[in-house]
Each structure stands twice: as structure tokens, then as C-alpha cells.
Amino acid sequence: xxxxxxxxxxxxxxxxxxxxxxxxxxxxxxxxxxxxxxxxxxxxxxxxxxxxxxxxxxxxxxxxxxxxxxxxxxxxxxxxxxxxxxxxxxxxxxxxxxxxxxxxxxxxxxxxxxxxxxxxxxxxxxxxxxxxxxxxxxxxxxxxxxxxxxxxxxxxxxxxxxxxxxxxxxxxxxxxxxxxxxxxxxxxxxxxxxxxxxxxxxxxxxxxxxxxxxxxxxxxxxxxxxxxxxxxxxxxxxxxxxxxxxxxxxxxxxxxxxxxxxxxxxxxxxxxxxxxxxxxxxxxxxxxxxxxxxxxxxxxxxxxxxxxxxxxxxxxxxxxxxxxxxxxxxxxxxxxxxxxxxxxxxxxxxxxxxxxxxxxxxxxxxxxxxxxxxxxxxxxxxxxxxxxxxxxxxxxxxxxxxxxxxxxxxxxxxxxxxxxxxxxxxxxxxxxxxxxxxxxxxxxxxxxxxxxxxxxxxxxxxxxxxxxxxxxxxxxxxxxxxxxxxxxxxxxxxxxxxxxxxxxxxxxxxxxxxxxxxxxxxxxxxxxxxxxxxxxxxxxxxxxxxxxxxxxxxxxxxxxxxxxxxxxxxxxxxxxxxxxxxxxxxxxxxxxxxxxxxxxxxxxxxxxxxxxxxxxxxxxxxxxxxxxxxxxxxxxxxxxxxxxxxxxxxxxxxxxxxxxxxxxxxxxxxxxxxxxxxxxxxxxxxxxxxxxxxx
Length: 695
Prior knowledge:
Blueprint: E1 17-21, E2 24-28, H1 39-55, H2 60-73, E3 78-79, E4 83-85, E5 88-94, E6 102-107, E7 128-132, H3 133-137, E8 144-150, E9 156-162, E10 169-175, E11 181-195, E12 201-207, E13 213-220, E14 229-233, E15 240-245, E16 251-257, E17 262-268, E18 277-280, E19 288-293, E20 296-301, E21 309-314, E22 322-325, E23 331-338, E24 342-349, E25 352-359, E26 366-367, E27 376-379, E28 389-395, E29 402-407, E30 413-418, E31 430-438, E32 444-452, E33 463-466, H4 481-487, E34 492-496, H5 506-510, H6 518-533, E35 542-547, H7 549-560, E36 567-571, H8 577-581, H9 593-596, H10 603-612, E37 625-631, H11 640-652, E38 658-663, H12 674-691
Helix pairs in contact: 2-4, 2-12, 6-7
Pfam family, one: Peptidase_S9
Organism: Phytohabitans flavus
Keywords: Hydrolase, Protease, Serine protease
């Protein structure tokens, strides 16, 4: 690696490394960057950071301004709406000047049925602090919680911490009566845990060398981790394992799932040493989830039901599945939450999320209505089983995150809290729209937009178009305080709901994966072209943005249509997909073959992936300006993917503007503290505004 000054782009050394598959030999000159412990790698990454810092030095004042705008609009000292579980209200507090949340509870008082008021943001009278993230994070550049799980009797707290960003957590148990953290300590655990009914036993997960959660362990409180027993182990490398306690607190559920197949096992929560019992053996292509409800298990499945249906089977002797809510094509059932006297089904229809209620003992369902043309709605945490009220989260591009309590009997809804936006924020100052682009194959692709009210469709407005398009993940409208800084500078924000996501049901996902993956990319380009054709913006005023699998999208569209964008932001981007999917030792490999295909065994998949993977397809064209953001300790998309991509872009098309910003102490989600996250967003937003001529 050579570099003259920080103002000069670093040049990565070339060390030819060959890979051969299906008779195809490829030379990768930058494979050496995968050597995380190589001093040359670290030196190169630091040189990239220095160059990026120098190249964006003129934006320092704007970054400060954007950060300050976010800070001024945010109520820094605040409380979440308390959630009742048993004899306590649970909530999270934030304090001005502190990076992390403080996890608290307060005893329920006699006759108290409504959650305590949190308007002033002050600690509740009589609160007990369960965990203070700021105290835990002291002395560390990064901090994240993996598990936060209170036992059914309210005595024990299981929690796990990560101080590197690599998502390897250390699990601990705290006695909430005494405040003592027990000697129990388990390193290298994964997200998720479940308590036995009496709180004597904790179930947790560990991962294999490919970062796949594959073992469920049983731990007795007060014992050494060396005494823990493996309850379930999954040998098939396509499958991940999860564990949870049902809301009824009657069963521990071990959820085993690949991208297209699933299986569930249950253990009576009152008998934690009992052997797991299977609900239904796995069948390739059949997915199902389990929720306990009285004498039955509810089964949400896709067996002969592309968009899923809800069924049930006996809790005493699981067998055949009897329909409860039949399959309706175009209405994607996404989840079911069981309460003593009601079921609430989360669904998706016509590109919008929704909630359907089924009273117990009735076959008549009803959907909860919401007023805006585009929005996002879903259930919040609802830990109580015997309740007639559910907590709902609602938001749109113009409506800040709102928490409602919905009465399942009277059908009335009470707003408990809306995220405060300080200053002169007025929702009426903004407009949200739904538009449609026409894809190359004639498919209509939805686009959601937000802009300042009165924005003219004459092509003069700058715009950002965001996309993801993988794993059936839907990019439903969400409210963002930092985004207001862009909108107030005249920028339109658009989301392309492209195939590979789940916005229009399971078929929408199927048409954007495996050997149909290119639909994801061409859909996005079609959306970008449509925004220009419809007068929302112009090509030289449009920046594309995406992260992770959406970063793969960014790299692919930069190759496919470099003339369509003035800039591209790729965050933790999966841009070296083929090389990664060819390596079974990496996290994004065996479990991902059902999403992308298996290029190791299938020549057609290999050729298809090679034809679109961004790193493989860099050419000497004029690229838009590109900003890649990544983290050294990312275990999902490894840092070397964007590092290699930027190096190859710079070598192949040297006239372009390419920047790589790498967090040297963070993981897939970037910086962990809220102020650090705001600074990161301000950095990206300033770069975008610069590209759009609004800096």
C-alpha cells in the first residue's frame, strides 16, 4: 500500500490470489485485505480513513450543524411508556448527555390500572434501576446488550453484553431483590434466552465457528457454566436456532429455521429438565411458527398457503393442523400473538401493515383501522397474557413514533405517547406520497415518498432513494428526526419497495431471490428512472442509499446504471457476495444458500452470481461518487468486502470519487451510543447534501 498524503487516495497493493470453481479461474488482487491481523491491512484501512477525513474536511461545519439540529429536536431526557408485567411497570430512561438507556421498573400501586405519566421525563417515584447502560459501557468504545430477560417471578434478570461489536455476548444473572450480580457467567452467547416457570433455570444460545446459533443450553441459577447441559443441537448448517418462553409462560419454544424451512420443539416451562417434544417434523419448503394458547398451539404456516394461514393443533398431543384463518392470496399473515381471550394477527395487504383481531370463541375477525394513506403499525411488547388491552406502535413518514393502548373489547384506542420532536416541527409542513414505477418486465413497483409541502414536480428538487430488497424484509414508512434536516433543505426522500422484500407478499420476495435476484436491481433502477421521468428530481440530483444486503443493491446498481445517480451511499455493504458465499466458514454462507443459491455446487448459480456481484463487475466506466461505510468488527458483512470494492473501483476507474469510512471499534450496526450514531448520520447526510449541491 502506498500513500503520499492524507489528501491523496491510498493505493492498495496487488497480491494476485487465484480461485477456481466450475472451470472458471479468477484472480483477486485484493484478497489479502481479509487478513484482519495483518499490519498492512490495518495500515491501509487507517490510510482510507485519513483520506476520507481530508476529503470531507470542508463539511466539518455542516456535520456539526446537522448533529446540533438532531440534538435540538430530540428530547434527550425521556422515558418510554411503562409496560406492565406482573407486579411491576417496566420502562427505559434516557438522560441528557448520556449515550445509553437506563432500564428500570417500579412497583404497581394499589388500584393502578393506567401506566404512570412520563411527560416530564423525570425518573418515576419509587423506581428501581435494573441496568444502567452508561455504567456498563464505562471504559469501552462500544457497548450493546444482547439479552435482557426478567424471570416470571420478577426476581432474576438475565442480561448479556458485547464490548467489541462482534455480537459475541457474555451472559450474566442479576438478583433484582438484592442488586447482586451472581458469579454465573457464560461467554460467547447469542441473542435470546428463556426462563423456566419458577425462575430456577435459564435457557440460552451459543454459536458455531460460522456465527450460527446452533445449541440451546440449560443453566441452573447459581451454578457454574461448566455444569450447563445442551438441550438441543442443530447439525444442519442451513438452520439457525432460537429459544423463547411463550407469553402464557407454559412452554419453552425451541425454534429451528432455515430461510425456507422450519421446525419447532417445546419443553414444559414447569419441567425445565424435560426432553423437547417436536410439534411437526421439518419438511423442505414448509415454514411454521408456534404460539401457545390454552389447550392448543397456534400454527402460522405456509403449507399450501403461499401467504400463510393460521391453524391450530392440540397442546397435549400435537398432530394435524385445523384451519383458523384460511389462506387469502395477497394478504400475508406475518405473526400471531395470543392473549387469554383474543388473538391478534399481524399482516400485510396492498403494501401496508395491519392488525387483525380474533376474539376467542368467535369466527368473526376485524381489522383495526388507521387514518393515513401510508404508515407502519405493529404490536409493541405485550408480556401480559390475561389482558384485554394491547400496546401498539404506529408511525409514518410524517407522524413520529406513537404508542397506543388498544382495548380489544371496546375497540377504543388511547394515545399514550408520541415521540417528542422539539422546536418548530409541524407535520403539516410535509407531504407523503405513494407512486409506482414500471419495471422492465411490466411489474408495477411501489415507491413511498416524503417531501416538504408544496415541492414542485419540475425536476429541480434533489432526492435520496433508499432500498433494501432481500430476505422478505419490508421497508415500511418510518419517522426519523435526522431526516428532517434533509427535508428542510429541500431534499425528497423516497423508498423503493423492490422485489426481494416483502411489501407485496411472499411472491414479491420469491421474485427477487436466487436466480431472480436481478429483479431487485432492475426494479431499483426503474424506480430511480421513474422519479426523474415523473419530475420528482433529476439524474444529477439523485443519491442512492442502502445498507447490508441493500449495500449489495447499491454496488449492483452502480454497475448497472452508473448514469442514474449523482452519488451512492453503501453502508456495511455486501458487495463481495460471490467470494463470501463460496466460503462455507463465513457467517454469510451456508445459511444463506437458500437466499442466494449455492455457487459451490451449482454452476448456474455461480455464473448468475458472478454476473451481478458488485466486486466482480467493476469496469472502467464513469461511476457516481461513492461513499462506503463499514466497521472492523462486523461479523455479518465483513469489513474487507467494501475495502476490496473501493480498492478495485479506484484502480479500475481512477477518475471517480470513492471514499471508505471504517469504524475501527464497532460492528454491523455501526457506533453504539446514541450521540455517536447521530454523528455518523450527520457525516453521511453532509456528504449527501454536498453531492446534491445543498451543503
